[in-house]
Amino acid sequence: xxxxxxxxxxxxxxxxxxxxxxxxxxxxxxxxxxxxxxxxxxxxxxxxxxxxxxxxxxxxxxxxxxxxxxxxxxxxxxxxxxxxxxxxxxxxxxxxxxxxxxxxxxxxxxxxxxxxxxxxxxxxxxxxxxxxxxxxxxxxxxxxxxxxxxxxxxxxxxxxxxxxxxxxxxxxxxxxxxxxxxxxxxxxxxxxxxxxxxxxxx
Amino acid sequence: xxxxxxxxxxxxxxxxxxxxxxxxxxxxxxxxxxxxxxxxxxxxxxxxxxxxxxxxxxxxxxxxxxxxxxxxxxxxxxxxxxxxxxxxxxxxxxxxxxxxxxxxxxxxxxxxxxxxxxxxxxxxxxxxxxxxxxxxxxxxxxxxxxxxxxxxxxxxxxxxxxxxxxxxxxxxxxxxxxxxxxxxxxxxxxxxxxxxxxxxxxxxxxxxxxxxxxxxxxxxxxxxxxxxxxxxxxxxxxxxxxxxxxxxxxxxxxxxxxxxxxxxxxxxxxxxxxxxxxxxxxxxxxxxxxxxxxxxxxxxxxxxxxxxxxxxxxxxxxxxxxxxxxxxxxxxxxxxxxxxxxxxxxxxxxxxxxxxxxxxxxxxxxxxxxxxxxxxxxxxxxxxxxxxxxxxxxxxxxxxxxxxxxxxxxxxxxxxxxxxxxxxxxxxxxxxxxxxxxxxxxxxxxxxxxxxxxxxxxxxxxxxxxxxxxxxxxxxxxxxxxxxxxxxxxxxxxxxxxxxxxxxxxxxxxxxxxxxxxxxxxxxxxxxxxxxxxxxxxxxxxxxxxxxxxxxxxxxxxxxxxxxxxxxxxxxxxxxxxxxxxxxxxxxxxxxxxxxxxxxxxxxxxxxxxxxxxxxxxxxxxxxxxxxxxxxxxxxxxxxxxxxxxxxxxxxxxxxxxxxxxxxxxxxxxxxxxxxxxxxxxxxxxxxxxxxxxxxxxxxxxxxxxxxxxxxxxxxxxxxxxxxxxxxxxxxxxxxxxxxxxxxxxxxxxxxxxxxxxxxxxxxxxxxxxxxxxxxxxxxxxxxxxxxxxxxxxxxxxxxxxxxxxxxxxxxxxxxxxxxxxxxxxxxxxxxxxxxxxxxxxxxxxxxxxxxxxxx
Lengths: 202, 856
Fold this sequence. Notes:
The complex is a heterodimer. By secondary structure, chain A is of the alpha+beta class. Chain A contains three helices and ten strands, in the order αβββββββββααβ. Chain A has helices spanning 5-24, 181-186, 188-197; strands spanning 29-34, 39-44, 48-54, 77-82, 94-101, 127-137, 140-150, 156-165, 171-180, 199-200. Chain A has a seven-stranded antiparallel sheet. The longest helix of chain A has 20 residues, at 5-24. The N and C termini of chain A lie far apart (49 Å). In chain A, 25% of the residues are buried. The model of chain A has no long low-confidence stretch (mean pLDDT 84). Chain B is mostly helical. Helix content of chain B is 55%, strand content 6%. Chain B is built from 33 helices and twelve strands. Chain B has a six-stranded mixed sheet with strand order 1-3-4-5-2-6, sandwiched between helices. In chain B, helix 3 (70-80) crosses helix 4 (82-103). The radius of gyration of chain B is 42 Å and the shape is elongated. The A-B interface holds A 1-3, 7-8, 10-11, 14-15, 17-18, 21, 24-27, 29, 31, 33, 35, 40-42, 197, 199, 201 and B 39-41, 44, 47-48, 51-52, 54-55, 64-72, 74-75.
């Protein structure tokens, strides 16, 4: 029996693809993903995912379970990651990504500025905003703000946070990264890549 | 490198290729030096499958995460679906093993003999039962492991932990599982309910006190009655036969024409035994859905077994058992018909008078094959048995007039139309299995619990079930049903004998007031040769209605005769002929009547009439004086003469002129003459036309694609000349007879014109110049009467010649009894029981029998 040409080519192509992929090796990144909420993020593979999972918090006026509308079943979720090989330190990049449902009573006057510490009097020391971008990707829009802050012990640290919400203001997505200024500048390319790859799929 | 490969190929033994003229065979597997080469598809199919599976998982990874790179997706698939790689690697290894074995004989032999050979040797030493059990355990373990892997994937545990935790999981899933199960359960319960509902009905149970019918109530079927009684004795007391090594018959088939008392016999049997009687309606097994009939059969026999145990026996009666169908007919084609046809052949072949038993085995086999292949309507082994046997009855209903059992004709025609029937869809098979199935132990406790305890199940008790079936289409029954063990005894419930009819008349007449003497009743039995219990009952009832209509409660002889005429011939039309046409019709019928009386000793006249019924202007009906089985050439020739007497008489009395009313007579005569010459060995040649047609010899066979009528072709052959010659001879004989009986014809015609209908006995009285029951025949032969009859006839002739309209009045002939008019004339229209058709056995010689003929 003579096989059709495709039948002979397919295994060869697959084997070739496998060999090619093996030759190329990995991309050097790993993925933080929440399939349920379709939130994806890419971090360098030498960073550690410290924790990842659903958490019990939401944006509510009274601290109780959020009141949501029928059909909305968003669960609060958080993943934390750290570039430190051992104990976390300001000298290494650390960050988080969050998904938070918003109580329906708060959606009409949801203020994304409250998700940034830039006007927080509780934080000791001075704060200098070094970057502020308005970002819109499809249905999702928000702010990315990077700021410089001096801690009580006199160390200068950089914070970089992306806070976005959907058109209904029913979910808030947050990605935050931070470390000392020196560390931030040294890892700015990787931090930029992490922020760039943050994706919320419809 | 290239050289080395070439050398290796040259060393490899070439597999012989089969070519034209070559004598070498393809080598057996044991003779191979290397493994047979796999074709490319077998070599690559699992690799393709594994690759496709891997590609699917790869694609799934990329699809699930839009920022994932292709390379990362690949490696992630490799890590997470490692089993695909493992399987692919194993398959690659396997293929490598095959490739090496295909090229290296040492390697091939090592695996074949050293490795697999030892394993096989070890296995072959193992007990097959042990091997089977080990295999079974391994299979169970495999499926358990697979199940554990799947469950483990769901609960994120290893397979063993997943299996151990399964009971707990099931417990936690119980409410959810119950919800899931309830919907299918509802659906199933709907079907169960529907089938239960549909499997009800069609079966009625009568308990001993419900049935009053006894054998004394069955008249005219004494021989069958005795046989059925005998079966009941065995039902009541089976030990009487079992103690001497026999067994009680469990099935009886009663077959015969409708109305002969089959159902009554069964009912009487139930009444006599004092056992429950389960009546199964013919439509009981008709069902809309597959399986309902089977359920009904199983339910019925469960009930029968229960009743049999409780009452010590039960009678199950399947009325119209032919409704159960025939598996051969049900599967389509003519398988069923062939089997019925062959059954019919065997029955005819074994009939009394058949030459079949005297033939050599080879001749018998040839006839059997002919019966299966082409046993057509004229394959007349039973020709000796009369016209009603296979010889040509189905195309010639009128032949029933001349002889044979008239029931045979319609019965066989019905077979042609018989289909699979309502017993299809497995019902019949279920019934066959229940009638004589495996005698298996029954009951949950008996079969399961006893077995668990290590005890042997008890054999079933002997259920005393007498199955009685009644059918008027026995050939439509499945042959398997009729085999001994299911239906042990087959009885024909035929037409009652004359003595039986007399007893039946007496039985029904005893229930009413009447003045009939024993002689009258005997005469009634004689002139109703094919009357059944049902028709006799109906006739007596009709006579009673006639009496009540006349304000009486007592049935007279005249009432019985009126009832007989009404039932056999139906009501006459209220129609008055033109006088000269009435005379011509009377002459026509008188010629038939006189000829019949003079030449036909095997038939006696029942009545002669010129009263119009539908398209029949008049007729002379006749009946056999006794129950007959065989028919002779001389009798058929007499029949021909009687048929042709109308033509001869019309030409004799009307100056060689004749009416179109003789058309029917000529058709009957021609047909009869054809059958005599071609089928019944009553012609100048001996060969049977039926067989000649079958083998395509001589004229008369239809060729493929030709529309030519084979009978027409036949008549154009020498056989046609024979037929014409015979008809001419009989015509001349009839003419001579009528010339010699001219005054008798005129006398009978006068009686018919005067009274419209006269009895056969009065026809005989007129022709023989005697006194009949209602007419004095002697009065017609006085000189004045003869002159008056001739003058009246001459006046009609003159009228026909001149075209005038005025006839002299019908002459008054002295000596005619006045009782006739009231006694035999068919009564005025009555509101009930009108229109009964003439019975097939009382055939008629029609005068002007149809309007079509008159229009010819």
